[in-house]
Structure formats: structure tokens, C-alpha cells
Specification:
single chain; alpha/beta; rod-shaped
């Protein structure tokens, strides 16, 4: 038997004859002459040294060897078709424009680093930012290709997700107030006079911080629709907050008056996910969730410890990198 007997063309011919059970119908499907189909089958059988079809039967039937080869040909041709489609999809999304959306806080901190990395590799990127429910909808209706948010969208089986990292909700206080707030009871007493600031829009952060406040029996809250306003009030000692580190590590001077305190053991974490539907985005999602994001986390932590955030309390479980293979 000769090596390299099969190529895509004779596999397609074998498949067409096996499925139509007719040389003429196979020729019509492949837009070839019947004689060309017959010659190709005869040449293939000669190279193999065995018959692939029972020609005396009507309609044409495969021999046992033919059935075996046909089953393998189906898989090969299917993978080839998927590869072609993947290349076309990548051409569409990679050369022209990648649409990526992130929930509001992640759009301020994580997304810029990701976009800069993609730009440096020649990808054109369009960014979207909104709360997590909106970003999830944009992914599912096809407006964006990749979502970075706090919801893995498990309700939709078409959505694939990878965990990026998990961070804990910490108490954020003014530098001047923080020395007096050392325990949970201190915080509860302080909260009777000074409000906790929350986001005013519906979001995962609002749901989580509201749950934490209920568990602390704290009802004195002030809702503002700007993280900058929240941080400014906190830095002045006129409010306090429940924030995750990545919500506030954007480098604004307002942050110089703020300090994190870990006073809430086992109360509230937030996991960020990268989500996609088109399987062609899987390699990019994996790269973002490992190499790119690890670089971001490392740089962020280093920058915090060299600035006004050097007095932050960083418990071992306040920021974890996670991966879902």
C-alpha cells in the first residue's frame, strides 16, 4: 500500500458516494462528471488494494473497509470545515474589530490594561462599559464578543466563562478615622453617625454590599452614582465604604486619604469572569485570564505598596487569582 493515499478531494468523493449511494448523484453534488467520480474511486481502491464499494448492489453499498474509512472521513472533513470557519471568524474579529465589554469598576481598572495589550498586537478594539446585567445582555445578543464581569451567565449554556480573580469586600475608611476603627463593633458604632456610601445604580456591588450591611445591622447609607464622589467623601471622613481593591486602585489623588481595613471575615467576595460565546475566542480568553491578567495584578499590587496605599491591610485571601481550566 502506498503512503499518503488520501487527500481531501478523494475523501469528499468517498463521502458523497457513500451518502448518495449513487455515482451520478455524487457527481451532481460535487459538480463533477460521473466518469471523474468513477475514476477517482477506482484509483483509490487500486492504491489501497481492496474494494470500498459493493458495485453489484443497488443502490451502491460500502464494504466493511469502506464503512471504516467513511467513518474516519466524516470526522476529518468535519474538522476541516470547522477549521475553515474558524479562520474566517478570526479574520472577521481579529483584523477588523474586537468588541469587548466590562462592568463599570472593571472597565476602570482591568480593561485598560487588556485593551493596551491587544492594541500593541495590532488588534482594533471597541470598548463597552456598563453594569454587569447590561454587559451580560450585550454578550448574549451579539453586541459584544467578550465580556468581563461578575456574572458567569450560567443560565445560558452557550456562554463559556473563566474565572479571573476573586477579591474580598473590605472596609474603606479615612486615614484620620481608621486608627479608631479596629473591630466590627467599632465600625457599627461609627456607622450610627457616619453613612456608608454605595453605588446608586443596580449592580452586583450594590447587592453584595447591601447584604453585608444587613448582616451588620447597619441602615445608615448614602447612595451616589460616582465612585469618585464616594472616595472623596471617604477621604474627608464624611463617609465610609465597602469596596473591593480593584474598585479603587485607579491611582487618583483622592485615594491618598483612604485606608482599607479587613473587619468582615467570611462576609462577601466578588469574582470577575471573562465570558464568550464564539469558541474562536477561547485562546484569547485563556491568554487574558493567565498571562495578561497576572501581569496586571502584579503591577497593581506593586504600585499600591509604593504609594499612599502602603498602609493598606492585605489579608491573604483579599485577592486571589483563579483559573477555570
Amino acid at each position: 500500500m502506498q503512503k499518503n493515499i488520501f487527500n481531501l478531494n478523494n475523501l469528499r468523493i468517498l463521502q458523497a458516494v457513500a451518502e448518495t449511494k449513487s455515482l451520478s448523484l455524487a457527481a451532481e453534488r460535487l459538480e463533477l462528471s460521473q466518469s471523474a467520480i468513477s475514476r477517482s474511486i477506482s484509483r483509490l481502491e487500486e492504491q489501497i488494494g481492496a474494494n470500498l464499494f459493493l458495485r453489484r448492489s443497488s443502490p451502491i453499498q460500502l464494504t466493511l473497509l469502506g464503512q471504516h474509512i467513511y467513518s474516519k472521513a466524516e470526522s476529518v472533513l468535519s474538522q476541516y470545515a470547522k477549521l475553515n470557519q474558524s479562520i474566517r471568524n478570526f479574520h472577521d474579529i481579529g483584523v477588523y474589530d474586537l468588541r469587548i465589554g466590562a462592568s463599570t469598576s472593571l472597565a476602570r481598572t482591568v480593561l485598560p490594561e487588556i485593551v493596551c495589550n491587544l492594541y500593541s498586537r495590532g488588534l482594533s478594539v471597541t470598548e463597552y462599559s456598563n453594569n454587569t446585567p447590561v454587559i451580560s445582555e450585550l454578550l448574549q445578543d451579539g453586541t459584544i464578543d467578550i465580556a468581563i464581569a461578575t456574572d458567569p451567565i450560567k443560565s445560558n449554556p452557550s456562554v463559556k466563562s473563566r474565572a479571573l480573580f476573586t477579591e474580598k469586600y473590605l472596609v474603606l475608611l479615612s486615614n484620620t478615622v481608621a486608627p479608631r476603627i479596629q473591630t466590627r463593633l467599632d465600625l457599627q458604632n461609627y456607622a450610627r453617625k457616619i453613612p456608608c456610601v454605595q453605588a446608586s445604580s443596580e449592580s452586583y456591588d450594590l447587592l453584595q454590599t447591601s447584604r453585608i450591611l444587613r448582616n451588620l445591622s447597619i441602615s445608615n447609607v448614602l447612595r451616589l452614582n460616582s465612585i469618585w464622589a464616594n472616595l472623596h467623601l471617604i477621604s474627608l471622613g464624611k463617609a465610609w465604604g465597602l469596596e473591593t481593591p480593584f474598585n479603587v486602585i485607579t491611582g487618583s489623588r483622592i485615594h491618598q486619604g483612604c485606608v482599607f481595613r479587613d473587619l468582615l471575615p467570611h462576609q462577601g467576595t466578588r469574582t470577575a469572569y471573562i465570558c464568550y460565546i464564539n469558541p474562536d475566542f477561547e485562546p484569547l480568553a485563556k491568554e487574558i485570564s493567565t498571562q495578561i491578567l497576572q501581569d496586571i495584578l502584579k503591577k497593581r499590587l506593586q504600585s499600591l505598596r509604593n504609594t499612599s496605599f502602603e498602609k493598606m491591610v492585605w489579608p491573604c485571601d483579599s485577592l486571589k487569582e483563579q483559573q477555570n481550566g
